[in-house]
Design goal:
The complex is a heterodimer of chains A (about 850) and B (about 220). By secondary structure, chain A is an alpha+beta fold. Chain A is about 55% helix and about 15% strand. A 6-stranded mixed sheet of chain B has the order 7-8-9-4-10-11, sandwiched between helices. In chain B, strands 1, 2, 3, 5 and 6 form a 5-stranded antiparallel sheet that branches. Chain B contains 7 helices and 11 strands. Chain B has one domain: P-loop containing nucleotide triphosphate hydrolases (Rossmann fold, 3-Layer(aba) Sandwich). Classes of the chains: A alpha+beta (about 850), B alpha/beta (about 220).
Chain lengths: ~850, ~220
């Protein structure tokens, strides 16, 4: 059997050499001779050529995927910006008829649509006007409906045209007791136009039904549309929200749009505080997607650097033998230029095979996975949403050019070596690092381990390059794992429900003059959270813990006689720290310092200026817990990013101010997770009859967060998976190349008595050395990069990024995968070597 | 005298049909223990192929090789490797030194692979004789062709094998060193009872051999 195998291999070798020889021998000189020599070299070094083609293909694939994703995201958002976010650039609120006239005179506004609040609808308990759900009436003209895509939301009928017509979601009518609303049905609603009016009954005819939006049911707010006549009949003084589209002649970009809109508002006599930009539409329709392009370019740059190293490494691994071969060609009279050309052509011929394959595979991978990702998101369900094609000839050419550039950079060093050494030097070239000076201290006796270490240290550059290349791909993996692994939907849900499984809070207004009993100051006088039923919650067997946050009503005394009603949260140390950890704070919030100074904090740092306060101002106010009041001047020590209330003080300050007893504004109830459903029912039945209370469950909040996080994770893990796959292939490539080009050396070692077992051991030791090096490189560089990414994401409030966890499981998995791969490859390769006679191995020329 | 090496109808063919090349044909030879045998023949006559098969580096198409009565191609690959490092020494025409280790390590490598302790005095003696004792820390590629050949010879002698196969070991050496190397081979053969099988073009060396095999077109045409 062995004889036969040996014979077959000899025949193959003869044929191979023949092919190379004939290719090289067709034309003695000139450009085509160089091309023929390059082709001959490719054929002769088939294994190496295949590995380089695979590497180039994978590089191109990855570059294509990154570019196509970036292009797809920008294009999809650009094409669908209007469909998803409406085609208006902004809205001016509180616009009177004079200001509106000013706007209509200006050519900067291409379209102007009017909308206005037409009152609220009473839900819940009719006698008091309180309720669990906010239900408002609104009028919007045709232009507004078109700019905001409202017409597309109509399921049946039409928007109100006559005074007594109404259009809303079926859920709106169901909330009012009309279970099966139909077009033409009459409905009676209790409405009022403003806070100064009392609720009164009104009959409407349903003119249109709007598509059901499931998210509105959970957020507890409904909006119904009425006609212009209805609005005009009730408004003493018209005040509109003006929705507009700027004309194309106005020079705006994503960065300048808001300022331009504010300037225009001022020119029309509108307070620029009432300008709100349709930022999503503005960003995607005006901005070229700079962030996406920068992100993709950065990722592509990493891939290019990484690929240059891989391809360079493969070229370099076999360079010693190849330089000797090139030396012979040089000795025959080839010029430096011809030698450079020879290597360049060889590389480019391989690129010509790898790049188109990579482009095709990359485009296919990108378009299929992009489609899946888009379909996973809600936006694909939006009517009129267009699935964009990811194909762009310009992009494909750019990717091909980038891949070719990658190969060219990788070829530069071999080109330099071959063209700079003399023919004689070239023929004797060993490719040694040169730092050892040709000496090695060595040992008295040498065994397998010594041989492994000698090989690694003698080829320091190759060893380092292999480790860095493999390490770099793992750096990408570790960084991404750091980022994706730390996305925590529970953190996001905990932003809404900070403790326990359920949150019951006061539902209040601040300045309802018609129904002052709905205001916080009045509610606190007979706080429903202190009612008998709520106290009973503590006795429920499922309940494990109850936490309370006190709330005070306050009246701010500003310049002169200007007063404003507001609410103040009383924060425990934990809640205080929690608010700090959510970022975007102003000042330097410190619980102890704040308690010592009896300081007050603002709740929304972005709006502190609008409120007319600055840090360290003295805030003059009256605090009220429902039974006692305190007139105070409190130092404004800082602001949190985003709170439920406008103001906050510490628990210690609350007690120091002498408020006796509790003034609960929120209570959190905890239970074992398996009891949550049962407890929810009990809590519903306990609170159902009580006014001014809202109840939320952690599970609902978590579900909503999980939907968002799963989308982000899917995207990140898809990319990480792809990188991991390509990295794995490249690592395998690097290892296989390293072993194949050393086949001759292994043959020599076996000729002088190394057994297959010893050879296997040597390869395993090398593999484990590379694994160890790779792990060190990936952890040393990957962790800081990953942490940086996490930190950037956290400070930019990317979903679910809060607490950093060391990605131990992912790194463990990576180490295991690396070790298994190394062992598998060394076993497979030593088996592959075994198939040949020792003489064949010694004669092997790559 | 004890026969240490014997072949029977040893053949090595490459290709098939019209393209068949018969590199070695029906070679049946015997070499006695302690003999200094040389194989002579023109370039391409099949000398190296025969030598590789005698040392178990290449597999024959048919035929057998016995070393100390053991049919070497019946051995498992690893056992054959162990036989090579313990009983056989090779000197290749192309030196075939391991580039990553220095001269000393190259010489003692077969001993290390076998887990044997190095006889340092003997190795030093061999290196001195071959005039490369001051090169022991050099890496092979810093040496001239002749020096590399001497390292290859030292490596073959270091493990005191029963039989040394040498493929033109003096081809790259000057006359003086060449004479010294042959003297060393002979001395070693006498001292340790070693057998030498050497390919050579050198008529003078052939003259002092105990046995000469002349090979032509893969066949042994005369023996003396």
């Amino acid at each position: 059997m062995r004889d036969g195998k040996g014979k077959r291999q000899e025949t193959k070798k003869t044929a191979k050499t023949g092919a190379a020889g004939s290719a090289a021998g067709k034309k003695p000189a000139g450009g085509s001779a160089v091309t023929n020599l390059a082709l001959g070299s490719i054929r002769q070094n088939r294994s190496r050529s295949i590995l380089i083609v695979i590497s180039i293909m994978l590089t191109t694939l990855l570059l294509t995927v990154i570019a196509s994703y970036g292009y797809g995201m920008i294009r999809s958002n650009h094409v669908n910006a209007g469909t998803l976010y409406g085609t208006y650039h902004g809205v001016y609120a509180g616009v009177g008829t004079e200001e509106l006239h000013n706007m209509q005179l200006r050519s900067e506004f291409a379209q102007i649509g009017l909308a206005a609040s037409a009152g609220t609808v009473q839900s819940g308990v009719p006698e008091t006007g309180s309720g669990d759900v906010s239900m408002s009436l609104m009028w919007a003209d045709e232009t507004t409906r078109q700019l905001m895509n409202l017409d597309r939301q109509l399921a049946d009928g039409h928007f109100p045209e006559k005074a007594g017509e109404i259009a809303a979601q079926p859920g709106f009518f169901r909330m009012l007791g009309y279970d099966n609303p139909q077009i033409g049905d009459s409905v009676q609603l209790n409405t009022r136009f403003s806070m100064q009016d009392y609720f009164g009954p009104e009959t409407f005819v349903i003119s249109g039904l709007i598509k059901e939006d499931t998210s509105q049911g959970t957020s507890g707010s409904y909006q119904a549309f009425v006609s212009e006549d209805y609005y005009n009949g009730r408004a003493a003084q018209q005040q509109y929200s003006v929705c507009f589209r700027l004309s194309d002649s106005v020079p705006v970009t994503g960065d300048t749009a808001e300022d331009v809109m504010k300037t225009l508002a001022r020119d029309c006599g509108i307070d620029d505080r009432y300008v709100s930009e349709n930022s999503a539409y503005v960003m995607w329709s005006l901005d070229p997607g700079r962030e996406t392009i920068v992100g993709c370019a950065l990722l592509a740059l990493i891939v290019i650097v990484f690929s240059v190293m891989v391809i360079y490494n493969i070229f370099q691994t076999g360079i010693a033998h190849r330089v000797r071969e090139y030396g012979k060609i040089k000795a025959l009279g080839a010029t430096k230029k011809q030698m450079k050309k020879l290597i360049f052509r060889e590389g480019m011929l391989l690129a010509a095979a790898g790049i188109p394959a990579g482009l095709a595979a990359g485009y296919l991978t990108a378009s299929v996975s992009f489609r899946i990702l888009v379909n996973q998101s809600d936006m694909a369900d939006t009517e009129g949403f267009v699935h964009v094609s990811l194909f762009s000839p310009v992009l494909m050419i750019a990717v091909a050019a980038a891949a070719a550039l990658t190969v060219w950079i990788a070829l530069k060093k071999p080109m330099k070596i071959v063209s700079s050494v003399s023919p004689v030097e070239a023929m004797r070239w060993q490719g040694r690092d040169g730092k050892t000076g040709g000496y090695r201290k060595g040992k008295k006796s040498i065994r397998v381990t010594g041989l492994t270490m000698a090989s690694l240290s003698n080829n320091r550059k190759r060893t380092a390059m292999t480790i860095v290349t493999m390490g770099l791909s793992c750096v990408l993996f570790v960084s991404m794992a750091n980022f994706a692994g730390n996305m925590d939907p529970s953190y996001d849900a905990r932003k809404q429900i900070p403790h326990g499984q359920f949150q019951i809070e006061l539902d209040y207004s601040l300045s309802d003059t018609a129904y002052p009993e709905n205001n916080l100051d009045q509610i606190l006088k007979s706080n429903p959270l202190e009612s008998r039923q709520i106290r009973e919650i503590g006795n429920l067997e499922q309940v494990t813990e109850i936490r309370v946050q006190n709330r005070l009503s306050a009246v701010l005394h500003r310049d002169g006689n200007d007063t404003k009603k507001t609410a103040v949260a009383v924060l425990s140390r934990e809640d205080f720290e929690n608010e700090i950890s959510q970022g975007s704070t102003l000042g330097n919030p410190d619980y102890d310092q704040a308690s010592a100074d009896d300081a007050i904090f603002y709740g929304w740092s972005n709006f502190l200026g609008d409120e007319g306060y600055e840090l360290n101002d003295m805030v003059e106010l009256t605090l009220d817990d429902g039974s006692e009041t305190r007139d105070l001047k409190m130092p404004l020590a800082g602001s949190f990013g985003s709170m439920d209330t406008e103001w906050a003080i510490t628990e210690e300050t609350y007690h120091k101010l002498g408020f006796e007893g509790e003034s609960p504004g929120v209570i959190w109830i905890d239970c074992a997770e398996e009891d949550a459903e049962e407890l929810q029912q009990e809590l519903y039945s306990l609170t159902s009859g009580i006014e001014h209370l809202d109840m939320f469950s952690y599970r609902d909040a978590l579900e909503t967060s999980e939907e968002g996080v799963s989308m982000m994770k899917l995207f990140t893990y898809s990319l990480t998976g792809l990188i991991a796959l390509i990295s794995f292939m490249n690592m395998a490539n690097t290892m296989i190349t390293g072993i194949i080009v050393r086949k001759q050396e292994f043959g020599i070692l076996q000729a002088i008595g190394m057994t297959n077992g010893q050879l296997g051991r040597m390869l395993r030791q090398e593999g484990l050395f590379f694994t160890l090096g790779t792990v060190i490189v990936s952890v040393v560089f990957g962790l800081p990069v990953g942490y940086g990414l996490f930190w950037y994401g956290k400070t930019h409030s990317w979903i679910g990024l809060h607490e950093y966890h060391f990605p131990a499981a992912e790194i463990g998995l990576m180490i295991l995968a690396l070790a298994l791969m190394q062992l598998f490859l060394s076993r497979m390769l030593s088996r592959n070597i075994k198939g040949e006679s020792v003489v064949d191995r010694i004669r092997y020329q790559g | 005298m004890e026969t240490i090496l014997r072949t029977e109808n040893l053949c090595k063919y490459y290709g098939s049909g019209e393209n068949e090349v018969r590199a070695v044909q029906n070679v049946s030879i015997e070499v006695a223990k302690g003999e200094f045998a040389v194989i002579v023949g023109k370039s391409g006559s099949g000398k190296s192929t025969l030598l590789h098969m005698l040392g178990g580096l290449d597999y024959p198409t048919s035929g057998k090789v016995w070393i100390r009565g053991e049919d070497i191609f019946q051995l498992k690959e690893d056992d054959l490797a162990v036989l090579r490092r313990r009983k056989i020494g090779f000197v290749f025409q192309a030196f075939n030194l391991v580039s990553s280790v220095n001269v000393w390590e190259n010489v003692v490598l077969p001993l290390g692979l076998d887990g044997q302790k190095t006889d340092e005095a003997f190795v030093k003696d061999v290196l001195r004789t071959l005039d490369i004792e001051d090169k022991i820390h050099n890496l092979p590629d810093t040496l001239s062709g002749g020096q590399q050949q001497r390292v290859a010879i030292a490596r073959a002698l270091a493990s005191k094998p029963d039989i040394i196969f040498a493929d033109e070991p003096t081809g790259n050496l000057d006359t003086k060193t060449s004479d010294e190397v042959i003297a060393l081979f002979r001395m070693s053969a006498k001292k340790y009872g070693q057998t030498i099988v050497m390919i050579t073009h050198d008529e003078d060396i052939a003259q002092i051999a105990d046995r000469i095999f002349v090979i032509e077109d893969g066949k042994v045409v005369s023996r003396a």
